[in-house]
Model the fold of this input.
Amino acid sequence: MEIKLFYATKNKFKIEQMEDRIKGLGINLITPYDIDINIEVKEIGKTVLDNALIKAKTYYNLVKLPVIAADSSLYVEKFRSQPGIYVRRVNGKYLEDDEIEEYYIDQLNRIGGESLAYYVTGLALIKDNKIFLKEIKEDKFILTNKICKAEKTHDQLSRIEFDIKLNKYFCEITKEDKEKIDYIFDEKCVEFIKDVLEI
Done:
């Protein structure tokens, strides 16, 4: 029996990644593109779990299906002040696409050009009016002031995020590359979904 799971995101790259993760689990992933709902969710929480839950609740009240949502925060080991959940917001100002890469390169120049970094992602899954939460510290990577010449992909920092396991910038990583590596987030995300949906 196929299980329906609504993914509370409009990010097509993230949707593609989730579809790859759950392949073979008998889950029919539904997204805002599959139904006639066009809303903007204000992420006003203080943690990744807060924001993930805000998104999950908003969509759950509309679609009445099991809903999963995520939010991420960034930590750069050499930075004194951490971006955290405010990856794109600095001193109250929202950084546009053409500003965010420039800002982080400037910050990296001040600490020697590069640093180990990692994301922490919060997952919220609501099923049968019950809330399930999971926080995952992802694999470390290098945040660098050396810009890759390839085009940006899933996020605006992908040209300065360097994957240690694959020895490639994030913007260069292919689907075939990802199949070669076991990433912490992919493993723990799938475990979480299987546990909650009882697969």
Observations:
- The chain has a mean pLDDT of 93.
- Residues 3-197 form a domain with the Maf protein fold (CATH 3.90.950.10).
